[in-house]
Amino acid sequence: MRCRKCPNKAVLGxxxxxxxxxxxxxxEFVNDQVERAVAEEKMFAKTDRVLVAVSxxxxxxxLLDVLHRRGYQTAALYVDLGIGEYSRQSKxxxxxxxxxRGITLHVHELKEEEGxxxxxxxxxxxxxxxxACGTIKRYHFNRTAVEHGYDVLAxxxxxxxxxxxxxxxxxxxxxxxxxxxxxxxxxxxxxxAKKVKPLYRLAEREIAAYAVVNKIDYIVEECPNxxxxxxxxxxxxLNRLEDESPGTKQAFYWGFLARQKAExxxxxxxxxxxxxxxxxxxxxxxxxxxxxxxxxxxxxxxxAKTHQRA
Length: 310
Ligand code: Q46
Ligand code: ZN
What we know:
about 300 residues, about 55% helix
């Protein structure tokens, strides 16, 4: 198979674009798609300070790699969930990556700050691990971005992540989540960082190929808690559809975004009504719609349990 842009040997076929690329042209393609995402969704400019949340996996490290090489002002945030060998290895990958490039790294240690790793913490408060994890990560992503004065927080979510999340939300008619599924969420109120997903135009396998071609040393294993997760099932199903008719994922997610944009123009934005409901959490001061934010409620429950046990 030949590259469609130059005479070199192709390393990856991209059926949804009826094309195939060699190493160099694939790298160019990934860069172009990131730049298009950043420009079309008005994510950030070269003068903005961008905090990239990294897990040590291919997506977040590739995103940091692309943005750093293109001259964006980047720093990284790693939340250490305290999941044994998996966390130890992923943290080491992140540390190597940023050290080689001179990128600032913020680390948040759950075991130190929250007093337990994510598995023990979720057990203690009787919440599904991934749901507790999501709350904690979102909280610290936002908090670190705001406290250190970053203009925007970027995550490595790709087209597969967003399409499978959309499928999950639609299957359960969780319409309240749909408004938050765009690739660029503005900083709606003071204390809320702007959040962006510059990889939303790229499929997981395209980013994996980028990481391999550009010799990014990432952790290949998934988080052990991801086993059996519904999201993985949705991804598998979408991959089967994609095999049969290339472009399905893109049409599903991008089609949703186009409709959402058209609708937003026709009605007062959700951000407006959100803004009216948000105020500072009574405990930590971060924006919330309740009196105390979900994170602080979780921590409160955890403290109570620890006292009971002592
Ligand atoms: S890190 Fe956290 Fe994921 Fe691991 S515990 Fe679940 S949510 S699977 S993205
Ligand atoms: Zn709070």
